[in-house]
Amino acid sequence: MSVCQILLKHIRLDGGTQARAAVDRAAIEEYAALWKDGARFPPIVVFQDQDIYWLADGFHRHAAADKAGLKKIPAEVRVGTLRDARLYAIGANTAHGVRRTNADKRLAVSMLLDDPEWSKWSNRQISEITGVSHHFVNNMRNERVATVATQSFGSQPPDAPEHPPVPAPEPTPAPAPGQAQEPAQPAPAPEPPDEEDCPPVDMTARPAPAPPPADERPRVAQLERLLQERDAEIKDLREHLGETADMLAEAQKEIERCHGILNADDRMAACEASTRTNSELARVIQVRNNGLMVENAQVIGFVKFWRRNFDSLMARVRKALETKEGDDLRAAIQDALSRDARKIEAKKKATTEEEEYNLLFGEAS
């Protein structure tokens, strides 16, 4: 990790590292005026991925420097991938910098919940990184579960076309809270003793393009993907059932604690009120738990239904091709097509010969 002067044009802003729903134009104007007056800002944070610099923290400072006509900006350079830069950006500005809006907080949490790996972290881990309460994270996670359940059982037919599966990213450990933040006020910073220009970058370098989606997939492959999706949904529902059970157990312990001190006259009324509140909480949690169990049973039934259809389809295909379990279906299909083509050709040839025969001998008779 080092601090150096880097050209603004060498910094990439298009990697999805912006963790704000919108930038504050007033803050950019204020920062730009301070840049022109000679004020010094703390360095922005960029991640160097081979020959590419990804901006992770300091979008307002970068925009203000560009507006002020600067060519270079002080930057703290860290070695890492685009994925590292995104994770750092999510944790930036949680306590300092331009005040975050509710939309900014939801975007930061969504960037973790929408990720195949980061979404597996606990609510408390995500809340520590994003600087919100774990209840805020839990509510957003429940919104996604409700949306998935609605789409699975209501709006999406079994044969609806699917999106290509997203490849799982390389594992990344959950970072500890307390990452460097963007400052709220641009206090003057001392001149670094050895601040040099960053090494030049090759701007023609680009990340490797994602592989193009495959052409139309056969029905068998579509059924396999559908089964994988349902398995993932079942796993997600089971995790949420576990969290709900933990909340129910905590509420039950609180009720039992209040029952134990009901004999104290001076705390009787307070404990009765607390007991009623916790009883209602336990009832609500129990209702939610029952609903999740019903949804889980529906998902399991849905998976079994498609598994039976898949097995039946495969059995009919193998019976038609006269193949056994473990045989190469592709080769069997090609052989069947070749046989059919030969039969058709032979039939056409026989028909032609018969017509010639009838033409010759029919006229003679």
How is this structure best summarized?
The chain has helices at 25-36, 59-67, 82-91, 102-113, 123-130, 134-155, 219-260, 268-321, 329-364; strands spanning 2-7, 11-12, 44-49, 52-57, 72-79, 196-197.
Query: What's the end-to-end separation, in Å?
Result: 102 Å
Q: Which spans have pLDDT < 50 for at least 5 consecutive residues?
A: 155-172, 177-194, 203-213
Query: What CATH architecture label of the largest domain applies?
Result: Alpha-Beta Complex
**Number of self-contained structural domains:** 3
The portion of residues assigned to helices is: 55-70%
Helix tally equals 9
Q: What is the CATH class name of the largest domain?
A: Alpha Beta
Please, what is the average pLDDT? 77
What is the oligomeric state here? single chain
Q: Provide the structure class.
A: alpha/beta
Number of strands: 6
Shape: flat
Order of helices and strands: EEHEEHEHHHHEHHH
Topology record:
Layout lengths: L1 E6 L3 E2 L12 H12 L7 E6 L2 E6 L1 H9 L4 E8 L2 H10 L10 H12 L9 H8 L3 H22 L40 E2 L21 H42 L7 H54 L7 H36 L1
Parallel strand pairs: 1-6, 2-4, 3-5
Antiparallel strand pairs: 1-5, 3-4
Helix pairs in contact: 1-2, 5-6, 7-8
Task: Write up this protein.
- This protein is α/β, with parallel strands linked by helices and 365 residues long.
- The chain has nine helices and six strands; from the N terminus they run E-E-H-E-E-H-E-H-H-H-H-E-H-H-H.
- It has a six-stranded mixed sheet with strand order 2-4-3-5-1-6.
- A hairpin with a 2-residue loop joins strand 3 (44-49) and strand 4.
- The N and C termini lie far apart (102 Å).
